[in-house]
Structure formats: C-alpha cells, structure tokens
Amino acid sequence: MGVEICVEGLTKSFGHQVIWQDVSLTLPAGEISVMLGPSGTGKSVFLKTLVGLLKPERGSIRIAGQDITRLREHDLYEVRKLFGVLFQDGALFGSMNLYDNIAFPLREHTRKPESEVRKIVLEKMDMVGLIGAEEKLPGEISGGMRKRAGLARALVLDPEIILFDEPDSGLDPVRVAYLNQLIVDLNAQIDATFLIVTHDIASARQVPDNIGLLFRRELVMFGPREKLLTSDEPVVRQFLNGRMQGPIGMAEEKDAAQVEQELAQIDDSAAAPAMTPRLLPGSGITRPPRWQTIAERERELHA
User: Fold this and answer.
1) CATH 3.40.50.300 for domain 5-230
2) Which residues lie closer than 8 Å to 236 by C-beta, 6 or more apart?
3) Helix or strand or coil: residue 250?
4) DSSP codes of every residue in 16-40
5) 83-86 sheet: strands from edge to edge
6) Domain ranges across the chain
7) What is the pLDDT along the chain (303 residues), one digit of tens a residue?
8) 228 with 220: CB under 8 angstroms?
9) Residue 262 and residue 266: Cα distance in Å, rounded?
C-alpha cells in the first residue's frame, strides 16, 4: 500500500536563484499524480528534494509521519527504502546484463539468498514484459526496453512510493502509449503512490488521478485530474492545449499586456478539447476497489 506525501511551504534555491518557492501539496496514498511545467521550472529538482537528495531552504516533507527535511543521514536512508525511482535514461549499468542490473538493489541492500533474488527479479521482469531478455546488455536493446528494465529495478525492493522522471523522454508515441498502460497496470497491481514528471500532454490527460503545474517559480495548481483539465487558469489552458498564446514564452516570461492581448484573441469554446477518457488497467489485471470506482465514473463521464 502506498503512503501519503505531504509537502508544506517548500522552497528550493541554488545560490541566489530561486527554483520554486512555497510549494504545498499532498500526494494521496496509492494514487497516480503528474507534475507538469515548462522546461527549466525545476520538476526534476522537486523529485530529488522529495527523496532527500537535495535539501530545501524552507518547508517540510512529511512521509510516514516523519519530516524528511530534518532527518539525520542514517534515518533518511531508512525512509529512502520506501522509494523506487525511474530515471530518464533508466540509469542502467552498461557492463551488466538486464538480470544483474535489476538484481543490483537486492544484492546491495538485502541479504536474501540468490535463489530468492532470482525469484523476485524474474517476477518483476515478468511484470514489465521483459522475460527472455535477462542476458541482454543495455546497449543491445531499445530505449523502451531500457525504460522497462529501469522500472523493474525500481520495483525489486517493493517500494511504497515510485517517482518517474520524464519516463516518456526519447520514446516514440507508440512506446509512450505502451509505457502509460504499463504504469496504470502496475498501480492497480501494487497500489503504490506514483509521481510522474513529464512534458507529455497526452499522458497527463490519460494517466493520473491528480495533476500539478509548476510555472514562474511556484506551483500554479495541484488537484484532481478533472479540475486541471477543465481549469480556466490561463497558464494551465495554454500548457494543456500546447499553444503559443498565453503566459509561457519561448525564452522569457511575457509581459502582462502581451498575455492579455493574446488571450483576448483565443476562442476557448472552439479550442478546448473534450475530456480525454482515463486509461484503465488492461484485461487480465484485477481491478482493486479504487480502480472499479474510477471505471464507473469514466463510464458516467463518457456515456
């Protein structure tokens, strides 16, 4: 079962450069949340701060009853065991085959016998569709397979929280669709808390329970998927519709007068897409009560 993450008043800077400030949100236990934002808004920095790799200047991150911003290194190490992380490139060791890459956390952090390690590794490889590829090296497989191998490695210690740092980067649209379905299926199977950083609007519309948007050094909004997809907030509408008109510019922020002029020229009634259907666990995946409720709500929304 996943655990809740409660973030209050979080601020992160590098020197005099404020990355984001006063970020407050709650990632509900067992749900899938997505964090969006233009390039350079500190989404990956947010992930690294959540797992304790970076220390914020102010604020708190409460996980399993503990504020990890105030923990000593030894105690922080224990809390990190709750996490699995899928990095952008899979972060696999190039000289190790997939089996040894996925087994690495078990051999490094546990004293399990090799027979049990093998059972766990093959189970996770099966979950991500990699059975038969155990002996392959990372350089011999596609980007999509490397992502799945990285995901299997993130799963081997049975984490209660899984962080995905741009899992769709470098993948073609078909592989992104397969990966999105895999993420939804895994959430239904293991019930962990998922947080995904992405630029992919189709993924953000289909996959999560909750969506957040970082812009101009702050969290513009965070809430249920339906709330964000129907929001009138200009930056949210601009980002989710992938258009030039709005507060987000190419290189720097636009001034208020320019933004107002651009927004006045938009016919939002014509531009707003219909509510995208939510991805549901695939056939053969037993749907826990939460997913049964989601399926019923989707049927009502799109009836």
Assistant:
1) yes
2) 213, 220, 221, 228
3) coil
4) TEEEEEEEEEEE-TT-EEEEE--TT
5) 83-86, 161-165, 193-197, 32-36, 210-215, 218-224
6) 5-230
7) 789 999 999 999 999 999 999 999 999 999 999 999 888 889 999 999 999 999 999 999 999 889 999 999 999 988 988 999 998 766 789 999 999 999 999 999 899 999 999 999 999 999 999 999 999 999 999 888 999 999 999 999 999 999 999 998 888 899 899 999 999 999 999 999 999 999 888 899 999 999 999 998 999 999 999 999 998 888 888 888 888 877 877 655 555 555 566 555 665 544 445 678 999 999 888 888 999 999 998 888 777
8) no
9) 7
Half-sphere exposure (CA, 13 Å, Cβ side) for 12?
26
Question: Which residue do the tokens 């899979």 mark?
Answer: 90
Q: Which pTM value belongs to this model?
A: 0.90
CA distances from 183 to 47, 168, 264 (A): 18, 11, 39
Nearby residues of 260 by Cβ (< 8 Å), 6 or more positions away? none
